[in-house]
Request: fold
Amino acid sequence: MTNASEWLATTPEEAIEPDLPIIDPHHHLWDRPTTSYVLGDIVADAAGHNVRQTVFIECSWAYREDGSEAMKVIGETDYCEGVAQESAGQDGPDICAAIIGSADLTLGDAVAPVLEAHRAASPGRFRGIRHRAAWDASDDVMGPRAKPPSDLLMQPAFREGFAHLAANEMTFEAWLFHPQIPQLEDLAKAFPETTMIVNHLAGPLGIGPYRLDEVFEGWKAGITALAGYPNLVIKVGGIQMPLNGFGWHERERAPTSDELLEENRRWYMHAIEAFGPERCMFESNFPVDRASCSYTVVWNQFKKLSADFSDGERAAMLHDTAARVYRLERK
Reply:
């Protein structure tokens, strides 16, 4: 990530209000041939802010090379449990204090042993599953990524597997694009006992056939509808990916926190107004959002956004909602 680091360095910022406690509820780790983001990288990025704990979200990394296809995903949990143990013995944030893994919920009842294996691999930290549902007909949106079924969240086999989450006290991370919001609403209605975390503001798209100004009102209505289900909480952030259409990665200089906030404020504020601070959590989505801004900058914008909220409301969005949802002891 050398080139990205050089570009991010064009806009240096110091962390503001550095004592405010933060839980980062959404980041990834991987060490792939073309890019790497591992324990030392996130610790370095978080330096300056008072990040106490983080939540790892699955990213198809470190799968087992042997065993059944269904069980290969346990390798990622093995890896993150090792990272968590290493991190816990060092100064600084507890990285991977909670772990969200992957499982093919379309296995139906046969997914039960996979969930049990995740918990066995990380009995004190494993919290839930993300089975990615993000789909769009546009090749500009999907790129080279594998396409899930367009109606994954509606499929009977998926829902048969999904039913095992609540029984195992596991949450569900909902990663989808904004046109799929009605599917998530239907899922929330069908499984009111399952805590679901809406990733990345429900994925508003701004490339291919989509333009952000045209998307906003429909997305806004969808978020209001989702907020009507008390088993849903939402991650406020994660919209600095190129597919969101802001184009930060195409600029000569990386954006400042003020520039980010000017563009993002209306999206963030509607989610907070709809769900309430007690059901919102700010997120970094690193290293994916690192394509558009630095870690210091992304958290500075959240602190600026929340400056006029009460101390309790700020604490909820920066720390307490994530602590409650992922069952993290205060550090």
About this structure: The first strand starts at residue 21 and ends at 27. The chain has one domain: 2-325.
